[in-house]
Structures are given as C-alpha cells and as structure tokens.
C-alpha cells in the first residue's frame, strides 16, 4: 500500500461507522462518532480524527469505554448542570451535554455545564461550534487524566499535566456567516506532532521540549524513550497559567479528578470539561454585539499581510476557526489523506470486532 491513502470524507465516515457499530454501538452512537472523527480530519486535526478509532475500539473491547452511554444529570441547579459522562464515547457525551446546556441557556440566558468522567471528547472546537450553530457563545476548559503527564509547569523540569485544551466560540453575526472559534491545546505542540517529527527523523523547533533532566532539546525521542522529557506550555508562564486554570476548573470543580500521582493509573484517556454557554442577546450589548464583532473582525483582517513570506500569517490575516474551514473545503474536494500506518491500525481495529479487512477497504472505497 502507498505511504498515504486518500479517502473521500463520506466513505471514511462509512468505514468508521461500520467498525463502531460492530463494537456494539447503536446507529446514533456510530454516526456521532464517525461524523466527529471525520470532521476533525476534514478540519486538519488528524491527531483527533479517525486515527483515534483503534484506541477507542481497544477501550471498548477491554470495557474501559462504555458503549451506548448517556450523560447522567447528577444535579440540576437551573443555570448549572452537573453531569457525569459515565465513561461513554466522548463524541456522544460531549454532544448530549452541549444539547442540554444549549436548551438551558436558551431558557435562562446562561448555563454552566459541569461534565466529568467522559472518555476522550476529541476536538474541543466541535463543542464550541455546536453552541455557535445554536447562536450561543461559549467557553470550554478541559483537563486530561488517565494517561501519564506530558507537559512541564513553567520553571519545572518534568511533566505534571497534559495538553489541557481551551476553546472559546463566538457565533456568526449573520445567518450565513461563520463563527470565530479559538480552539487550542495549552502545550506548545501537540503530542501527535512530536510523534510525526520522530517518525520522519526530524527535530522539533527550539524551546518546545525539555529532556528528563529539564535541559532544552529539539530531539522528539525524548517524549518516547525512558526516562521521558516533557513538552513546554505555549507562551511561557501565561500558557502555563491557562493550563493550570483548565486543570482546576475541569478537574476539580466538576467532581472529576486533577492530575496527580496515581490519577493516570487507568491508562484510559478521560476528559473533564467546564463549559459556560451564554445567550449573547441577554448581555448588556443586546443585539449590538453583531455589529461590533463584525466590525472588529473586518478591521483586524484588513491589516496588510506580513512582508516576510515565511512568517506565520504571511498569506494574510485570519481569525481563529478560518484555517479549519479552509482545510475542510480543500479536503472535501480532494479527499482526506490517511497515512498507511494509521489506516493499517484502523483495519486491525475492525478485525478485532469481526470486520474483515476487505469489508473496511470496501466501505472506504479503496
Ligand atoms: P492549532 O495550533 O492548530 O490551532 C489553535 C487555534 O489557532 C485554532 O483555533 C486555529 O483556528 C487558530 N489558528 C491557527 N492558525 C491561525 C492563523 N494563521 N491565524 C489565526 N488563527 C489561527 O491547534 P492545537 O493547539 O494544535 O490543538 C489541536 C486540537 O487538539 C484542538 O482541536 C484541541 O481541542 C485538541 N485537543 C484535545 C485534547 C483532548 O484531550 N480532548 C487535548 C489537547 C488538544
């Protein structure tokens, strides 16, 4: 097989659905998981796309991920919902948790969704986009437990927490407009990108990693060969500060767990999420937010492109969420590249739940 296979988005969705169904999930669950993972690939975030499926199926087989689970409402305080994800598929738990929060925010103007104990909820922008599509603004703070720490605290020399993502989504100002969606890990680089650099025999950029002694290194192997090193937080003490806030809001206040000795023992990737969903029309600006958001975005984007061709943003100014939408258009047209290693793992995941390799290939149209 070629080093990379290119698969049409709808065919890739069909192949993923088929495998998730074979794992015992119902039709709705299989569709939500497939749609979510393929949208991550379409958005250019392969680290949170179909490449996650083998880990999910293994967790299903080992009964660490509970199929056909729904979020349990532990407490309903009106504008605050306390939910437990029951270690269900994060693609379903995240979706249903946001639906509950959206419904409540429409009634009360705001809803804090306190979600604990979900299996991996993937790309957090997905949840911001779901709220934005409902016309609501939202912020989401997430921590990651169940696996060993990856990121060092500013001034520290070993890993103490994970890549704790943060997302804020501003709804579109017009019915056919696009939201602003800032969705990012608080680490300088995603772990998936360190693995890619290692597999290609490349070095990572300076000031990204430290080795097990806390010494700066550009060698990606430091994250894989014991004793392992750590990734740095983005933006020095500021990114580190945001990672700590995400850890505490999502891990401590939801009734979940924070990263500390022993809390990663399960080996199963677990997310907790603290979300605030707000109806913008109920805030002091009423409907003027539409004018102000549009005016600001237009003003910022009118900045002349950087004269340095290799500088970030040298093709012109974008706002958060645009790179993902540009990638979606390109990959919808040209197909989604999946590297042969990842595709092989997906095929083997299918076999582990009784789907022959030929069936997975046929579903994907390759
Ligand atoms: P990234 O660095 O690719 O993008 C971060 C943000 O910057 C995005 O909102 C993007 O739209 C914006 N952006 C990118 N280029 C831009 C430009 N030129 N101009 C303006 N804005 C630009 O993302 P990342 O930090 O590598 O995170 C990748 C994904 O990993 C995210 O979807 C995140 O939610 C996910 N994640 C999930 C978990 C989990 O446990 N579930 C953990 C960590 C990260």
Overall number of domains: 3
Instruction: Supply the CATH class of the largest domain.
Output: Alpha Beta
Radius of gyration: 21 Å
Q: Identify the quaternary structure here.
A: single chain
Question: Which helices and strands, and how do they pair?
Answer:
Blueprint: E1 4-7, H1 9-22, H2 27-42, H3 53-61, E2 72-76, E3 80-84, H4 90-108, E4 110-119, H5 125-133, E5 137-145, E6 166-170, E7 180-184, H6 191-199, E8 209-210, E9 216-217, E10 230-231, H7 236-252, E11 270-278, H8 288-301, H9 322-334, E12 336-339, H10 340-352, H11 357-364
Parallel strand pairs: 3-4
Antiparallel strand pairs: 1-12, 2-3, 4-11, 5-6, 5-11, 6-7, 8-9, 8-10
Helix pairs in contact: 1-2, 1-11, 2-4, 3-10
The structure holds nicotinamide-adenine-dinucleotide (NAD).
Question: In words, what does this structure look like?
Answer:
With 366 residues, this protein is α+β, with helices and mostly antiparallel strands. The chain folds into 3 domains: 1-68 and 338-366, Hypothetical Oxidoreductase Yiak, Chain: A, domain 1; 69-187 and 235-302, 2-Layer Sandwich (Ribosomal Protein S8, Chain: A, domain 1), CATH 3.30.1370.60; 197-232, no CATH class. It is 39% helix and 17% strand. It has helices at residues 9-22, 27-42, 53-61, 90-108, 125-133, 191-199, 236-252, 288-301, 322-334, 340-352, 357-364, and strands at residues 4-7, 72-76, 80-84, 110-119, 137-145, 166-170, 180-184, 209-210, 216-217, 230-231, 270-278, 336-339. The strands form 3 sheets. Strands 2-3-4-11-5-6-7 form a 7-stranded mixed sheet, with helices on both faces. A 3-stranded antiparallel sheet has the order 9-8-10, with no helix packed on it. Helix 3 (53-61) packs parallel to helix 10 (340-352). The mean pLDDT is 94. The structure holds nicotinamide-adenine-dinucleotide. Nicotinamide-adenine-dinucleotide (NAD) binds next to strand 5, strand 7 and helix 9.
């Amino acid at each position: 097989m070629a080093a990379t296979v290119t698969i049409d988005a709808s065919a890739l969705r069909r192949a993923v659905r088929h495998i998730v169904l074979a794992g015992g999930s119902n039709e709705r669950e299989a569709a939500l998981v497939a749609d979510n993972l393929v949208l991550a690939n379409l958005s250019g975030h392969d680290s949170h796309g179909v490449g996650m499926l083998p880990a999910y199926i293994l967790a299903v087989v080992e009964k660490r991920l509970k199929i056909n689970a729904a979020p349990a409402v532990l407490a309903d305080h009106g504008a605050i919902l306390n939910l437990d994800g029951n270690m269900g598929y994060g693609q379903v738990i995240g979706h249903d948790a946001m639906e509950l929060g959206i419904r409540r925010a429409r009634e009360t103007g705001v809803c804090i969704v306190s979600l604990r104990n979900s299996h991996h909820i993937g790309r957090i922008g997905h949840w911001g986009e779901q709220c934005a599509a409902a016309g609501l603004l939202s912020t989401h703070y997430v921590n990651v437990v169940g696996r060993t720490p990856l990121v060092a605290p500013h001034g520290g020399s070993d890993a103490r927490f994970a890549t704790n993502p943060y997302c804020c989504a501003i709804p579109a100002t017009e019915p056919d407009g696009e939201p602003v969606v800032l969705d990012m890990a608080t680490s300088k680089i995603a772990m998936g990108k360190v693995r890619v650099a290692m597999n290609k025999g490349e070095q990572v950029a300076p000031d990204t990693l430290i080795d097990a002694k806390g010494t700066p290194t550009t060698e990606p192997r430091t994250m894989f060969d014991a004793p392992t090193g750590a990734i740095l937080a983005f933006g020095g003490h500021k990114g580190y500060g945001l990672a700590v806030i995400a850890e505490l809001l999502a891990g401590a206040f939801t009734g979940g767990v924070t990263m500390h000795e022993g809390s990663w023992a399960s080996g199963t990737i677990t997310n907790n999420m603290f979300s605030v969903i707000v109806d913008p029309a109920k805030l002091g600006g009423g409907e003027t937010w539409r004018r102000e958001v549009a005016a600001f975005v237009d003003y910022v984007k009118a900045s002349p492109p950087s004269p340095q061709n290799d500088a970030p943003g040298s093709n012109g100014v974008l706002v958060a969420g645009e790179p993902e939408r540009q990638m979606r258009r390109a990959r919808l047209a040209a197909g989604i590249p999946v590297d042969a290693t990842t595709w092989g793992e997906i095929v083997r995941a299918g076999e582990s739940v009784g789907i022959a390799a030929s069936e997975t290939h046929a579903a994907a149209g390759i």
